[in-house]
């Protein structure tokens, strides 16, 4: 697991804390952050997040404020005496964030971290005897927080993941601090959309099967359709035929649906992970979760294409 370590004000890369993490086997990215330009520090940190696949972000003092003001995606956030009231505009963190702070800190009041975790539902660990948190007990607590950031996943495991970002080619999902990429062919057994923006929005949840782990690149690939192999209409698991009448579930309205010639349509599920577009209807006809009876009008096994019509 790679760690982005963001140092404090008037500190330098390669300090005691990032070195401690590195000596315990973590690859640590520790960029130089300018003391006199907070916006530039945020830009540098965001660039590192965007360039590397990171599971953990550790921010110390002012570096904690920097960490709170960037988009860390699915990474776990660990804050050390964060100076969030002095720099930046962020006032909350993700609930799975761990904050380490010493009650004897004479630079950043311990009460600031108490307020932060109360506002966010995060975890506060009281440790150390000063602002630096460089004593052995504090270093061990930081290491323990990092060790608990990502419970290892295994191929074949099914998890309930939350969509954090959509792209044309896939869904970036999060589970327990892990980022899982579900590419577009792994969403539905029936190809019915040209962009994953037609399928889901941020905050949607799916059961995802882990299909591949690349630990060297810190990349996890998942599949939604692999959770439902019985719903594959292209093999003997499910003999879908023209004329079949099915009770489908409305997923969502798509304003410009590729399979509807670029006009609006409804994405519906004939079965879980067997999605098709229902074209020819205006927005508002159905709501997400509604049931609708459809008849299979056309099946093209070669192109794996299915067209359905609404029963009147």
Note down, in words, how this protein is organized.
By secondary structure, the chain is α/β, with parallel strands linked by helices. The chain has five helices and 16 strands. The chain folds into three domains: 145 residues, Rossmann fold, CATH 3.40.50.1820; 73 residues, Nucleic acid-binding proteins (OB fold (Dihydrolipoamide Acetyltransferase, E2P), Beta Barrel); 79 residues, Nucleic acid-binding proteins (OB fold (Dihydrolipoamide Acetyltransferase, E2P)).
Largest sheet entry:
6 strands, parallel
Q: What value does the Rg take, in angstroms?
A: 24 Å
Helix fraction by DSSP (H/I, runs of at least 4): 10-25%
Class by alpha and beta content: alpha/beta
Strand content: 25-35%
Major sheet strand order: 2-1-3-4-5-6
The domain tally reads 3
**What is the CATH architecture assignment of the largest domain?**
3-Layer(aba) Sandwich
Can you count the helices? Answer: 5
* Multimeric status of the protein: single chain
Task: Write the H/E string, N to C.
Answer: EHEHEHEEHEHEEEEEEEEEE
Alpha carbon gap, first and last residue: 55 Å
Overall geometry comes to elongated
CATH class division of the largest domain: Alpha Beta
The fourth-level CATH homologous superfamily of the largest domain is Alpha/Beta hydrolase fold, catalytic domain
Write down the overall mean pLDDT.
92
How many runs of DSSP E, i.e. beta strands? 16
Uncertain parts: none
What is the CATH topology classification name of the largest domain? Rossmann fold
